[in-house]
Predict the structure.
Amino acid sequence: MNTKELVKSKQNGHNLNAFAIDDIGDDHLYTGLETPMKPDAFKISDEEKKEKIAILFEEIMDTMGLDLTDDSLKGTPKRVAKMYIDEIFSGLNPANKPQVALFDNKYQYNQMLVEKNITFYSNCEHHFVPIIGKAHVAYISSGKVIGLSKLNRFVQYYAKRPQVQERLTNQIAEELKSILQTDDVAVIIDAKHLCVSSRGIKDDTSSTVTAYYGGVFNTSQKITELQNYLK
Ligand SMILES: [Zn+2]
């Protein structure tokens, strides 16, 4: 199916993956830990994806009545396509997952390690507008330690997907649990959703907080200790 045919087929009754737009509404649904991907998600290359997205985005702009011969607008479809694949949604491709090296805990540091205020930019999967926030991650070594910048990199990797905050929180936590070979992992995210502030309810002051407390972090003593570090 070529791109024009693809656009045509999508025009049948506003039907996307069997959800009618009217049914989706404004609710923020959360369907599971894994980012929902098609089995053939990587059948075509990133370069082919960029070409396809550029054509489709041009179609969107053209449909909105924008003049794509205008000097300021004509490069936009390609810019958006490149930005989607290489930057803001690069975390969809497992090839971009950070490589990790574990080290033995030679320092014998057995208390919690907290990496706080990790700034991230993500995008809401329901509206494709930014989620801007801070992540705080903590773990207690089970004998292995990880380079500090890797904690940051895993936050960025999972943020660079269309996301909901609940999934982002759990994906980071599950990844760190698996890498660090321990359940003693905590992730707290405090983020602003532009789909809440710039449109819809237009609330500019609220933020959303989500947390994952695994293993010994799921006790009031450890939660209090962690909260004290985050003050
Ligand atoms: Zn949204």
Observations:
- Strands lie at 15-16, 19-20, 102-104, 112-124, 130-140, 144-146, 162-163, 185-193, 208-213.
- Helices lie at 3-10, 21-24, 46-63, 76-88, 148-159, 165-180, 194-197, 220-230.
- The chain has two domains: 3-88, 102-230.
- The chain has a mean pLDDT of 90.
